[in-house]
């Protein structure tokens, strides 16, 4: 590695990433190829006596959009932070689409970015070097396409032979690395049989849904397919609909276009019955399929409505602190006379399994509380809220609230920096990063809205007068509103939080905290 005499290179970025060959070699030998690559490049760069930074891609991907570290490198090259990029070989820059290669090529040429490798330095103003860069980029892409074609061809051949090449191994099976065929794993296989038995025959003589089966398995302490403690209804549904459990291998049933999956025509599918030992028999499978088809045909398609419901984001489980979630179940019951009855069951349940209650009962409880609050005279309201104020004052005597809030904010900022580092390192994908970022932002917003209670009794009395007036206005507007989201906005403007404690079957206590900001 050397620097051209006529070149001004003040800063270098060294980009490291694993190639597909590196990943394959690591699987065979356990060698850390990225560490070996780093040592090679650092040894070469140290000889140049020029400042350099290391940009290390933890993951791997053929497209720029799947390599967050390289995206940052491109950004910094465009900004002029670096004059050269050091790589083990030019193909390390990418084997992506021709659009990706064009973006890299244009950047190198327009900014005169030198490419430094252990064996040669490429100057984009040298026509011979530029020709070599174009050739290397083109050859890298062609080599990638040829390798992919060979791998796809091999997978098609293996699939037609009944070997497993369809991704992660299904729950209930293990993959024999020698034969590349699935073999039942009895500890999980018996759970699969239990799921089909519960779905086909019910529990204690009663029909059970996917969610009920998931809850039952969780209570038994059985580990889910994702190795989590809790099962969810989707895991149960996938098992009941997967033909792998009767020994059938399916491959090439869908295609992916820009991270979206589309079903292929059945004429293109590769289907191999009897490819491996089944976990359930054909009769059990057919019975489950008939039941699933009956459920699907008996229920008309309903357009999903994701707008917030009346109590969205308000009710918190007092036992575990999780926000409780609305669930609507539509039950069809066959009458003795031959007809069908349809029942809409609306519940508010804790995602941690602490319990569930009727949704409309909770809504009625909140409205009843507000109605009673609006009927109190101002003096009684003032006394009640002054008691609350004094209790809060005594509790705060041993705690610096402002300091605690600042400590929590500092912790949230550390968490945000941590997930940013993981995202930049390629450990978190876009969706995971955005979800965790939004969660932290929500917590930060809640901290910003915590009031500092410095009101005097006179202030409280004045607010109680406004409170009574606003409650009357609120109740009239709430009962007149037709839209559930409008009702939610009204409640959230009046109530900070509602803590629910389940006390028995269908029974619960509500601890309601009104907002004071609405009185201003």
From TrEMBL:
Residues 170-298 form the Recombinase domain. Pfam families: Recombinase, Resolvase. It comes from the Bacteria. CDD domains: Ser_Recombinase. PROSITE patterns: RECOMBINASE_DNA_BIND (PS51737), RECOMBINASES_3 (PS51736). The lineage of its organism: Bacteria, Bacillati, Bacillota, Clostridia, Neomoorellales. It comes from Moorella mulderi DSM 14980. This is Recombinase. One of its GO terms (molecular function) is DNA binding. Residues 395-422 form a coiled coil. Keywords: Coiled coil. Residues 11-162 form the Resolvase/invertase-type recombinase catalytic domain. Signal peptide: none annotated.
